[in-house]
Amino acid sequence: MSTRRDFLKLSLGAAAAALPALRVSGALAAPAPRVLRIGNQKGALSLLKGRGSLEKRLAPLGVGVTWTEFNAGPVQLEALNVGSIDFGDVGDAPPIFAQAAGAPLAYVAATLPRPQSEAVIVPRNSALRDVADLKGKRVAFNKGSNVHFFLVQLLRKHGLDYGDIHPVFLAPADARAAFENGSIDAWVIWDPFFAAAQATLGARVLADASGVDGNRGFYFSSQNYVRQNPDVIRIVIDEIVKTDAWGKAHRADYAAELAKLWGLPAPIVQRAVDRNEFGTVTVTKPILGEQQKIADTFLELGLVPKRVDVLQAAAPGLA
């Protein structure tokens, strides 16, 4: 009997899913159209937006796509938390703060490590020559962004504590202005802002993340969106994988296309692309373990109010 009941449940479920419309007060009401609201930074998603290839893939499913650009991950994840976006790209640290704030985060894919794409930079004529020289100095970075954890780990590697510096929390545009006018001593930043500072301000690299932080990027959604739209998520990731593969084989063309989309000089974008590691991978338990290390470090420093269990952000059916 249980087998027959299970079969009936499956049959009824399939029939309900196949219904093209709902009957409301004796009339047929069209099903609500599906939409994918993407929040993107300056990265691979910019190419998908510029090309319109994702819209073409999703059109047969009746899924519309909207785009909103953000300058950093924390505000992007705030948008997820309040239900303004469904998908986005982010660095390794922002998801920890988002989870701590109760965001319904789901990791759906990860990039390969990209340690050379973030760095601590100083003005060309700065007296600072080593990471240890940062003690007592004003160091600017975007609070809760990917460079936050990198800075903590870098300081520890060189015998300093997070409390040994004077953090100055600034978004990239404000940090650049502070860097130019000399109101900060160092800036911790990622590409393409990093490459732009090197090219236009003559910024000098004090240290990048090599041997300190993997600097993975992540693609995220919400738990509910993944449960309700696994087909959409799979298509988005497939398009990202294709873009990565093309970019790895055609770095100059990739950089030129991004330069047009970002409105930045081609040499700046080329510099960022040259040190980028292309590749999108499935989020595994070891990768989530890397994230757990970040979460535990932030708890230890009092940067998050409670322990974050990263495994709870594994995407349902995709992890």
From TrEMBL:
The keyword Signal applies. The keyword Signal applies. CDD domains: PBP2_SsuA. GO terms for molecular function: ATPase-coupled transmembrane transporter activity. Keywords: Signal, Transport. InterPro entries: ABC_SsuA_sub-bd, Solute-binding_3/MltF_N, SsuA/THI5, TAT_signal, TAT_signal_bac_arc. One of its GO terms (cellular component) is membrane. Gene3D superfamilies: Periplasmic binding protein-like II (3.40.190.10). Transmembrane segments: none annotated. It is found in: Periplasm. It comes from the Bacteria. Part of a binding-protein-dependent transport system for aliphatic sulfonates. Putative binding protein. Belongs to the bacterial solute-binding protein SsuA/TauA family. PANTHER family: ALIPHATIC SULFONATES-BINDING PROTEIN-RELATED. This is Putative aliphatic sulfonates-binding protein. It comes from Paraburkholderia eburnea.
